[in-house]
Here is the input.
Amino acid sequence: MIQKIKDHIAKVEAFTATSKEEVEQFRIQYLGKKGILNNFFAEFKNVPNEQKKDFGQAVNTLKQTAQEKVDTLKQALEDKETAKGVYGDLSRPGEPIPLGSRHPISLVRNKIVEIFSRIGFNVSEGPEIEDDWHNFTALNLPEYHPARDMQDTFFVQKDPDLLLRTHTSTVQVRYMENNKPPIRTISPGRVYRNEAISARSHCFFHQVEGLYVDKGVSFADLKQTLQYFTTEMFGKSKIRLRPSYFPFTEPSAEVDVYWGLETETDYKMTKGTGWLEIMGCGMVDPNVLKNCDIDPEEYSGFAFGMGIDRIALLLHQIPDIRMLSENDIRFLDQFKSVL
Ligand code: PHE
Here is the structure.
């Protein structure tokens, strides 16, 4: 009989449960009214006197062990449930949040904005659907001016006065109309041109244009500012200005930066010349100032404009401009480590 009780004690000690129902069944089996323990207690009167002491002790041990088992299992299951709460199991390891990366266009744009903001330029923006005045006429490109063909334009159907801006010089006109000099502003944004799409050119791309209008602004100021920019942007301070033509600036120039010919990539990028064309610039044409109600006798200014996409392609050695608008995660992922 005593051996039977000892077997039960071993069984109770080994018992485990994963649900409250299992614990309850176990409790009824041992501690319930018609349970194993009560059966042993009922047996007590039949036990010979000299065994009563040992028997009593064994049954008590079994009772204690069973009670403790029930208590600890209940507590453990309750603890688990609280941890789950409304959020599920809080003790599970977290799921990693994938880190994003900035688009190469944003990287270059932010760097340009940051460099010019250090010398007092603010950022201005304007609409992508523009009227003829802001895109052409105010910029010294009256109707039938042949230079309108320099930038093939998307017109909005049914309204020949509306178009997708071909450059962000539009924002400079808007800025001059609404602000008095001194003006120092840069205008980043997307522009559209009706061009065949290829690895080198797209029907939409991005520009940053800059404008500085004040008393006594000279061509030397322009060159200094651009030199500061190329030094900060590319770490290259040698630039040259080649005479060029834009209807809204006079005189006008193309800006080349000396990249060097140290590596094979330098050769490829500069087609063996060492020079890289990066932007157009010039002194704001007096007609443009007049169109914006600024007296060209009192004020002068310079303007410049560059393509962000082209610079992004150069800096990151991207072989095809279309990659910038395809949103291929495998491509974009590679810019994770670039700030
Ligand atoms: N707006 C010109 C372009 O899109 C660039 C430019 C801006 C040139 C300002 C001179 C001055 O090509």
The two ends are 80 Å apart (CA to CA). The first strand starts at residue 122 and ends at 123.
